[in-house]
Amino acid sequence: MKAVPVPEIDGAYLFEPTPHADRRGFFSRTFDRDVVASVGIDPDGFVQDSLSRSRKGVIRGMHLRGGAGEAKLVRCSHGAIFDVVVDLRPDSPTYRNVKTFELSGDTQVSLYIPAGCAHGFQSLTDPSDVSYRIDRAHDPEEDITISYKDPELDISWPLSVTMVSDRDERAPSLGEALKPTR
């Protein structure tokens, strides 16, 4: 397994496994604490593992955590997704950059998303399973949702949107979502 920095999003990494394939299929290590630690990420800092399953065309996102934020290690374990990260850390050298990836069960590549970045994806297959390792317990009071169709983000989703949650459909624009509250 190797760690590959993502230049467009400061602090983001792709963790590319080395699958061992034979006539039965393949075996692949999807997490290696030493490789994760080698790029300055605390491998013991993850406190929650979650899984989502989505149908083709479904969009989940764009989601962000307020407060101290939330770092994630995301992997498509089955199927394929179009994954999107937006750097919303004002002090970051890649502030407001948008970067897209295709993650799939065929490659088992994991994407590390630093705290302070918004994240979302569209399922390219029916179904797609996405595994998340998250570094903080979920607190719904800190949830921030940004419209997946915000023209400022200008995300070119590859498929027609078949379904989104009510929360994602009603999400405000980037500017509205990030306005300070009084």
Automatic annotation (TrEMBL):
Keyword Cell membrane: no
Keyword Isomerase applies: yes
Highest taxon, organism lineage: Bacteria
EC number: 5.1.3.13
Annotated InterPro entries: RmlC-like, RmlC-like_jellyroll, RmlC_Cupin_sf
Keywords of the record: Isomerase
SUPFAM superfamilies the UniProt entry points to: RmlC-like cupins
Pathway: Carbohydrate biosynthesis; dTDP-L-rhamnose biosynthesis
Enzyme class: isomerase
Catalytic activity: dTDP-4-dehydro-6-deoxy-alpha-D-glucose = dTDP-4-dehydro-beta-L-rhamnose
Any one Pfam family match given in the protein's UniProt record, by short name: dTDP_sugar_isom
Family: Belongs to the dTDP-4-dehydrorhamnose 3,5-epimerase family.
Functional summary from the UniProt entry: Catalyzes the epimerization of the C3' and C5'positions of dTDP-6-deoxy-D-xylo-4-hexulose, forming dTDP-6-deoxy-L-lyxo-4-hexulose.
Complexes and interactors: Homodimer.
Name by which UniProt lists this protein: dTDP-4-dehydrorhamnose 3,5-epimerase
Organism: Amycolatopsis bullii
Source species taxonomy: Bacteria, Bacillati, Actinomycetota, Actinomycetes, Pseudonocardiales
